[in-house]
Design brief:
By secondary structure, the protein is mainly α. This is Cyclin family protein. Pfam families: Cyclin_N.
Length: 207
């Protein structure tokens, strides 16, 4: 009932610059840049043995975007949820060593709210290149929801206000003006895919 209500109330607002004006690669850059902006002392790759994929964040985001049916607004919705998650868990900052799984969990939750037939955890596991495993994704989702008190509703006004933020609009415009982002998607090198396959037991709050 709650999910149906959210779907009926939710509409993607019109903004001065929106995500539909971006190519696929530009949108990958947009999502990655917004996430990296929340990480202090961000490095290019997670720490070895952190439990995260040993690839750049943009490569991981592109893997999700190019393989899933989740529309772009799911990723914007997910970032809003992630910001809510961060505001309620200040003792566990977002780092390069946990942002992959926290963002993936945000996308999984947002897809349940915005898609009529969202992917299952087994499918999400495949979409994320089988790095975590469906059982671990279930643990992530439960921890995430508990830490935001199951507050998953993002209203039209909240979505619109987020998209109108000066920093968000600045990232959008920067991605549009970046001529290197004209290719539709980032090809995943074979060695990147290999590094994604190493799985270790992890928890959501691993920093």
């Amino acid at each position: 009932m709650h999910t149906d209500t959210v779907k009926k109330r939710y509409r993607t607002p019109r903004v001065s610059v929106d995500v539909y004006g971006l190519t696929g690669r530009q949108f990958v850059g947009f999502v990655s840049d917004l996430l990296m902006a929340h990480i202090e002392n961000a490095t290019q790759l997670p720490r070895p043995h952190s439990g995260e994929p040993q690839c750049k964040l943009a490569v991981f985001i592109d893997a999700l975007l190019s393989r899933s049916v989740a529309p772009r607004q799911c990723y914007v919705y997910a970032i809003i949820l992630l910001r809510r998650f961060m505001s309620r868990n200040r003792f566990y900052p977002l780092t390069i060593n946990n942002v992959y799984r926290i963002m993936l969990t945000s996308v999984i939750i947002s897809s349940r709210l915005l898609i009529d037939n969202p992917p299952t955890l087994e499918q999400w596991n495949e979409l994320s290149l089988s790095h975590y495993g469906p059982d671990m994704l279930a643990v992530f989702e439960q921890e995430y929801l508990q830490n935001i008190d199951w507050d998953t509703l993002v209203s039209f006004s909240e979505y619109s206000a987020f998209m109108q933020r000066l920093d968000v609009q600045a990232v959008l415009r920067a991605c549009i003006l970046d001529s290197s982002h004209q290719i539709y998607h980032i090809a995943l090198p074979a060695d990147e895919i290999t590094r994604l396959s190493a799985v270790e037991p992890v928890v959501l709050f691993n920093n």
